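tool_log.txt
---
The assistant was asked to compare two proteins side by side. It first ran the structure predictor on the initial sequence, then on the second. Raw inputs and outputs are pasted verbatim so the downstream comparison step can read them without reformatting.
(1)
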Amino acid sequence: MMDTAAARATRALPDIPRDNDGPVFREPWEAQAFAMALALHQRGLFTWSEWAATLAGEIKRAQAAGDPDTGETYYRHWLAALERLIADKGVTTSETLHRYRDAWDHAADRTPHGMPIQLRPEDFEAVT
């Protein structure tokens, strides 16, 4: 494995799903969430120690709520940790994250299967 940002992240986060070439992803959004965390780390928003502690907290919360910890939900916890950190660091608010999530859900509902999802102003207006 080359010494890339992804390789360094994989070494810093030993529980990340991986193979001999580095991190592995089941869905494109998982790779995108991974890339967002890498980019924010590289910009100095958080250290890998902060990231690992936040991710561990999200996993513990999910397990306490009944997550079976089979590995299939790892990147859902990753995304929750990313959202928590950017809200805690003041990059955005939890309310803004929820507003965009709701607008995204609305956009996904109106988009035919297989077509790209595009956010439109009316997706935000549908959010109450």
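(2)
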Amino acid sequence: MRNDNDIYNDIGKILFSISPDGAKKVILQAEFVPEGDVCTFLYDYVDADNNTKWFDNDSAQASSDLMDYLIELREFTIVNNLTNGNSIWIGCIVTVDIEKAKINIDFKYEPFIEE
């Protein structure tokens, strides 16, 4: 099994590759459905003027790969007993700072994306 840093790097690479021109940051909100086999994705970016804007990811392959990596990250969390006896996270907010080449993932344990 790969380590979590490898998974984070792969997620960051995908988000960087689909980021709109001029984006300083890319933000992915991802939430699994209760069955855990489908994920809702919302994409935003921060432009040069620090405005946050929504964008549409037209790459089905990127979405599929992101889903695979998030499932892998959840499995890593479970296998390595990183839940501290709590439920596994159901979603996350991933922020890729393109200028600093840094990634941050904020895990969510309750539904947070409104339909």
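---
observation on (2): DSSP finds two helices and five strands in the chain. The chain has a mean pLDDT of 92.
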